[in-house]
Amino acid sequence: MSEFFAEYGDMLLEGTWVTLCITAASTLFSYLFGVPLGVLLVISQPHGIWPHKSLNLVAGWIVNMGRSIPFIILMISLMPFTRLVMGTAIGPKAAVLPLVIAATPFVARMVESSLQEVDAGVIEVAQSTGCSTWQIVWKVILPESLPSIVLGSSISFITLIGYVAMAGALGAGGLGDIAIRYGFYKFQTDLTIATIIILMILVQIIQILGNGISRKIDKRIKK
């Protein structure tokens, strides 16, 4: 065991760091785009606070189409666009763009589900006081749904960890790249097992943190 870590420890540590950096950046940008899209899906529904049938249909279509494409196929298809925008189609930096495009529809649906949990009575009270649509969104809907959004963000982060591992097969780097290059092509099963264990540990840590933060900010739970 000591010999294994002496030989591969630095590589696994770097792969873990790269995986976390790519995942964190992709999650951040996915929520920057996904939260507004999720809000739009909710408020533009026929029974929403800003009903707009056509806009809701277009937004829903975009989200559904985005979620229907397997990530590995999307990443390959986007390589020319990724090269144009990022300057390269391989490496950690290049992986962020397809990851954001793949994750944004998923995040939008997660946010939509969280926002729909908000008590309609709270929204009606805000409307009765004369709040505008965007005041209701910023001061009522988003704050009330924040614990659920935070919990959903941990799920999104975990999902993106899996996407990043898959992206390693196409030169994105990280733990997926180590598993492919050494575990698969060089038949080093011990490295494959090590990457799996590290990924499992990362998933557990992220889920525990997400659950803890969500409970901490949830006003419905008595401290």
Span between termini: 44 Å
Assign the structural class, choosing from mainly alpha, mainly beta, alpha/beta, alpha+beta, or little secondary structure: mainly alpha
- The total count of strands amounts to 0
Q: What average pLDDT do the residues reach?
A: 89
Order of helices and strands: HHHHHHHHH
Shape, principal axes of CA atoms = elongated
Mind summarizing the main beta sheet?
A: none
Number of helices: 9
Strand content: under 5%
The Rg value, from CA coordinates, equals: 20 Å
Residue share in helices?
over 70%
Q: Give the uncertain stretches in residue-range form.
A: none
What attributes characterize this protein structure?
223 residues, mainly alpha, 81% helix, elongated
Brief digest:
By secondary structure, the protein is mostly helical. The protein has helices at 2-43, 53-68, 71-77, 79-86, 92-115, 120-128, 133-167, 174-184, 189-217.
Task: Explain how this protein is built.
The protein is elongated, with a radius of gyration of 20 Å. The model has no long low-confidence stretch (mean pLDDT 89). By secondary structure, the protein is mainly alpha-helical. The longest helix has 42 residues, at 2-43. The protein is built from nine helices and no strands.
